[in-house]
Amino acid sequence: MEPGDERGGRWLREIGPVELLRRLRASDGTAAEALGGMTPKRLGAYRLRAGRVEPERDLTAVAEAGGRFVCPGDREWPSQLDDLGDARPIGLWVRGRPDLRLWALRSVAVVGARACTPYGSHMAATLGAGLAERGWVVVSGAAFGVDGAAHRGALAAGGATVAVLACGVDVAYPRGHTELIGRVVEQGLVVGELPPSEHPTRSRFILRNRVIAALTRGTVVVEAEYRSGSLVTARDAQRIGRFVMGVPGPATSGLSAGVHELLRGEGVLVTDASEIVELVGEIGELAPRRRGPVLPRDLLATATAAVLDALPYRDSADARDVARAAGTTVDEALARLYELHSLGFVERGGEGWRLTPRPTRGEDTRRGDT
Q1: Strand locations in the chain (E)
Q2: What percent of the chain has pLDDT over 90?
Q3: Which domains does the chain have, with CATH numbers?
């Protein structure tokens, strides 16, 4: 069966894999006809495929590649894939030492454009490294562009990453990522729905995205045009109740147009790994509070700041004028002026008070800018 075959998934749910294979392989075809729900021509295509299946050969091939086959009911099966209903994978071929189920429990997908910009590549690598440093598994599709950058970021941080392929796990695709996929096998996991030696097709790439979405706690889209497989992943994630996030880009960039459309809907804007973890993580995993630099004037009491604001920018003023402008008494104004003097904000010249000159030209000393 092809990935995402809901009709086949329904048969598996209703009669189980052993009985389904027996019916499809029955010599007279009457048992297969009892399955129903399709034309004789379509049923014939299933029977033709079933007759050519060699499970032992596939299991031997994946074992020789250092891999294994994981299916529903196995201890290593990630149960969150069951959220796909009848479209869930029949099983997953896996290469790598870690436990897929345990890794999937704390994982985030980072996806985006293949022909990404330097900004997109930078953001994907930064997010991959940041998530890995926080103990999260980075999941992506091993494609050129954003996918590859996310994997490399996680690997560079010594973290965990999973590549979900649209082909056999013993096939390095794209060929230009042969070395990268090899590194992922050594340090993480490579998984796929298709048996060993199977090659990708356009439809398989699209259907692979639902696995990425279901396997993880949330999906982050870094760059994507209006028509993008990354947005398919985001929609799949949204449909099954996963978090959907997007990294904003320039409003003039076509590669950010799809992300911005996502953010106008249900997507959540994120800019770094801490913001992602705050959304998908446990209670208390909060991003740091964002604020600008604290200036000396920000630390002044309200009454003191009012007296500082009452002083003229260039000329000096006596305590009575300052008190009138600040709306306070002369004694209170004097007390605040001496406080400001000790802090270096003002200086006294004869009977008047003036702002302390700052070395930076054109600077607003009243605000304490630097």
Answers
A1: 67-70, 92-95, 107-111, 137-140, 161-165, 189-192, 218-221, 243-246, 268-269, 346-349, 352-355
A2: 75
A3: 6-53 (no CATH), 63-280 (3.40.50.450), 296-367 (1.10.10.10)
DSSP code per residue over 55-108? HHHHHHHHHHTTEEEE-TTSTT--GGGGGGGGGS-S-EEEESSS-HHHHHTTEE
| DSSP 8-state class, residue 363 | -
Query: Residue 361 — φ and ψ, nearest 5°?
Result: -70, 140
Helix and strand numbers (H, E) in the chain are: 15, 11
**pLDDT, tens digit, 9 for 90 and up, residues 257-275:** 999 999 999 899 999 999 9
Q: Considering only CA atoms, which of 244, 238, 203 is closest in space to residue 4?
A: 203
**Which tokens in the block code for residue 12?**
């598996």
d(CA 110, CA 329): 61
The residues, ordered by sequence, that sit 6+ positions from 301 with a Cβ below 8 Å of its Cβ are none
**Residue 367 CB: number of other CB atoms within 10 A?**
14
Full 3-state SS string of 242-259: CEEEECCCCCCCHHHHHH
Structure letter (DSSP) for residue 316: -
Closest CA to 17 of 94, 74, 71: 71
Residue 86 has pLDDT above 90, yes or no: yes
Q: Let me know: does 237 contact 32? Beta carbons within 8 Å.
A: no
First-to-last alpha carbon distance for the chain, in angstroms, is 67
Q: What Cα–Cα distance (Å) separates residue 242 from each residue in 177, 192, 209, 218?
A: 29, 21, 13, 5
Environment class of residue 278 by beta-carbon count within 10 Å: exposed (0-12), middle (13-18) or buried (19+)? middle
At 140, is the pLDDT very low, low, confident or very high (cuts 50, 70, 90)?
very high
Average pLDDT rounded to a whole number, residues 25-51 = 79
pLDDT digits (tens, 9 = 90+) for 87-118: 999 999 999 999 999 999 999 999 999 999 99
